[in-house]
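SAMPLE LOG
Freezer: B-3
Tube label: C17
Construct: single chain, 475 aa
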Amino acid sequence: MSKVINKNKVQFFPVMSEEEFEALKASIADRGVEVPIIVDQDGDIIDGHQRKRACDELGINCLTEVRNFENENQKLELALTLNCNRRHLNQKQKRTLIEEYLLRDAEIADNHLAGIIGVSKNTVASVRRKLEASCQIDKFEMLRGKDGVKRPKKQNRIIANTPKETEKACQMILQLPEKSSGKTHDVISAQRHAKRNQNAQKRKVEGESVVPVTDEDIRIFHTPFQKLESVAGIEPESVQLICTDVPYDKSFLPQIEELAEFAERVLVDGGVLVTYSGQYWLPQVMGMLGKHLDYRWMIASYWSGDANQINIGNCSITNSWKPILVFSKGKMNKKCVIPDVSHVQTKEKQWHDWQQPLSEAELLIRSFSSSGDLVVDPCSGGFTTAVASRNLNRRFIGCDIDEECVQNGHRRLQLTKSLTEYVEDAVELGRSDINEMLQDWSEINAVSPALASGLVLELSESIKESVNSEPMIAV
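STRUCTURE (predicted):
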């Protein structure tokens, strides 16, 4: 009887459920083994563990194909190829599969693994960078291709048209990021990529570069913020920034001081609370926050176009701005330069009636926190702060008391991530027209053109810069 090697060596997918296994066994009992199991020269099963198990339980012989393998990597690649060909995987499952494979065989070339799983090499490269950054795999200068030969990683290339451009190219070629390997740039695009890479390296030296955030780092809950600490497991003095938009009506005033007490408990020393506020109850809001935190400044968020008409006694006020209050727990830690006037260019109300612009949320989060910091939004509403935090590589915890808002928040994050991965793969395959990408992606995901067009604006800046046309405006 053939022995079975440790399934963790070549088995990448979850073991069948009992229901699935019984269905397989019934099929084999009825029609026999239609696809032979594959074993190596030592009799170890490479593909077909469940078929072999079913045959053993039925007491019948199992059709077997014996193959000769030169090394363990050949076994891994075959098992992965056969399983991928038999299954329909979504993007999340594919990225998980890439991660599991690289943990076992990190020397495989990105384009080779991409071809097996059915993704772009850019997707494989992004998963590899995450594992390298977290020291789960080593960095290799030589990677193994489909033919089994190890070759150096692809080189950077810059095309220069003049002697002056050649001189610049010589200065920049070593400053290009790893993701540019194998790509050809003109001098202008190379200069842009090199500058970004230099800034990233500078942040790393300053201790700001951290492991990229994952799905597990962006967490949202259906709960009042008074219970968020226990529900989400927020430790005392573990939060760098609270960024939120509290309700402006009088009924919420009693909770403002509770919010200040919450902030005092969870913020690190020097941490910041930033919140939008209405004007009518502004003195009361500032007074309650000031009982537990130190007032730092007020930012004016103003917009053009439609203004709110507010009646105060005999006066009718045309309101086109709102305050953004900045408080801190003691002396602020982070040095920043931020204007105290923010001009809102467009209204964004796709996910919530009180939704604030993503660009403004990113401005606040970028200014008052650093990469890898924990951002909390206790009144999340449309969960714009969650999208902004993920775009800026911050961890996030948010909540709302409206269950529908939380469900919409999950959907917003899922769709934004799906579109990001689709655009990354499309760009890697040589596509650049965002309108074509949106049309294909919206059909695949059953999303309206209007929603798809709005989601483009929520992609990270690096993704938006990789395509070369404005998104369609769907009506």
